[in-house]
Write a structure and sequence with these properties.
It is a single chain. The protein has 140 residues and is α+β, with helices and mostly antiparallel strands. It has two domains: 1-39; 42-139, Band 7 domain (Tetrahydropterin Synthase, Chain A, 2-Layer Sandwich), CATH 3.30.479. The chain contains six helices and four strands; from the N terminus they run ααβββααααβ. Strands 1, 2, 3 and 4 form a four-stranded antiparallel sheet that branches. A hairpin with a 5-residue loop joins β2 (55-58) and β3 (64-73). α4 (86-97) packs across α6.
Length: 140
């Protein structure tokens, strides 16, 4: 091979390699910014949260439970809607807790929070529930 052809091939490979590195850096930086922008600050979380009333009901085995949630929404409109839907929250909890026994309640609190979030999001019209956190629970 001639030395001119080798120089052209090496130059072409270097240009292609540099283009790939630049493209990779651009793609990684663009996706990183989007992920950072979606997180709520703690002030926004507190502002858009609703503290439910304490709910007392019985479990399947005859035990009683008292429970309270902090419901985090995505906006002020969603928070106001959740406040108005307190009766639906109570209904969801009564139905779900009546299926549980004491052991299910002790070990399945995360599942209960997920169910409440899912069921409330099914009825929401203004925004959505982003998280449900248990803030108080008593099992008797």
């Amino acid at each position: 091979m001639s030395s001119g052809l080798v120089k052209t091939m090496v130059t072409s490979l270097i240009i292609i390699l540099l283009g790939g590195v630049v493209a990779l850096v651009v793609v990684l930086n663009m996706t990183g910014d989007k992920q950072k922008g979606n997180a709520q600050s703690i002030d926004e979380i507190v502002e858009h949260s609703y503290k439910s009333t304490e709910i007392t009901t019985d479990l399947q085995g005859g035990n009683f439970v008292r429970i309270q949630f902090q419901i985090v929404t995505g906006s002020e409109d969603a928070k106001e809607e959740v406040e108005k839907r307190e009766f639906q929250l109570r209904n969801i909890l009564i139905k779900e807790l009546s299926k549980m026994n004491a052991e299910d309640f002790k070990s399945g609190l995360e599942n209960l929070e997920d169910i409440v979030k899912l069921r409330l999001n099914e009825v929401m019209t203004s925004g959505k529930i982003t998280d449900v956190v248990t803030i108080n629970k008593i099992l008797q």
